[in-house]
Write a structure and sequence with these properties.
Elements lengths: L1 H4 L5 E10 L2 E11 L4 E5 L6 H9 L6 E6 L2 E2 L5 H7 L1 E4 L11 H11 L6 H10 L1 H5 L10 H13 L5 E5 L7 H17 L3 E5 L3 H7 L2 E6 L2 E7 L5 H8 L2
Parallel strand pairs: 3-8, 3-9, 6-7, 7-8
Antiparallel strand pairs: 1-2, 1-4, 4-5, 9-10
Helix pairs in contact: 4-7
Bound molecules: adenosine-5'-triphosphate and magnesium ion.
The site of adenosine-5'-triphosphate has 12 residues, from α2.
Length: about 240
């Protein structure tokens, strides 16, 4: 539809380059994420997916390139300010606090912002992930990997992000929880309050959930477009091992 083509993207990344210890890791990555859509960033191990996310969130500094969230230029802001502008980030490997309770983990992000989530926001994450409500008093470290992933997503959601960023949420997780995370992503997309940037190597998960995709190869975007256009040739060339 032409009307959507003219919409300001939720995230606009232009010509992002990152070096680590003198070697170029990202070589001019550009992406555009449309409002209310799920964008899958794909590619084999070590191509620069996590580095792209860290450069977007400000956890890694870029040599050059721009990052815009809606009409706001994030390029010169630090990671904390970018989060406050509306980036919700769930890192690869989840990184919850094992010694804190599930409840404490859940509110870490909002406490840091000096804002208590509204009861309906808390109810929404309990609806998405019922296990969290059940396990509120337990230590985070007692949860399974999949449950920790759900907790990390819930924590990010309570900050009410404009863009939810997930780095390989299915990695090492049992199939029934992968299904629940997939259902949650669908529900969030259908609610239409945020766009979602999903880094994933699980192809079927991407195909089912993604509206658009980009494939990275050695720090560059090798292919991008609508998920319906992800061909078997591209899969064979850039995704299968
Ligand atoms: N701190 C670091 N020091 C040196 N090299 C790094 C560092 N972090 C990443 N790299 C290198 O940068 C490249 C991209 O890494 P990155 O973690 O972004 O890949 P990825 O696509 O997320 O991989 P994976 O699918 O395994 O998570 C890799 O070659 C990696 O070895
Ligand atoms: Mg990674």
């Amino acid at each position: 539809m032409s009307a959507t083509a003219l919409e300001t993207p939720t995230l606009d990344v232009s010509d992002l380059s990152v070096s680590i210890g003198g070697s170029r890791i990202l070589r001019g990555v550009s992406l555009s994420i449309r409002p209310k859509t799920v964008f899958c960033l794909m590619g084999r191990n070590g191509v620069g997916k996590t580095t792209t996310l860290k450069a977007i969130t400000g956890l890694m500094s870029a040599d050059k390139g721009g990052v815009k969230l809606g009409d706001t230029d994030l390029s010169r802001l630090n990671a904390e300010s970018r989060a406050l502008q509306g980036l919700g980030y769930v890192p690869q490997g989840r990184e919850i606090f094992p010694q804190l309770t599930v409840e404490e983990n859940l509110y870490v992000g909002t406490v840091a912002r000096g804002r208590k989530p509204k009861p309906e926001e808390v109810d929404r994450v309990f609806t998405l992930f019922p296990i969290i409500k059940e396990f509120l008093p337990r230590k985070g470290g007692m949860l399974s990997g999949g449950q920790q992933q759900q907790l990390a997503i819930a924590r990010a959601l309570l900050t009410r992000p404009k863009l939810l960023i997930l780095d390989e949420p299915t990695e090492g997780i049992q199939p029934n929880i992968i299904d629940q995370i997939g259902d949650a992503i669908k529900m969030l997309r259908d609610e239409g309050e945020m766009a979602i940037l999903l880094v994933e190597q699980y192809l079927d998960f991407c195909k089912e959930l993604g509206d658009d995709f980009a494939i990275l190869e050695r720090g560059r975007v090798a292919a991008a477009g609508a998920m319906s256009g992800l061909s078997d040739e591209l899969i064979k060339e850039f995704l299968t091992v």
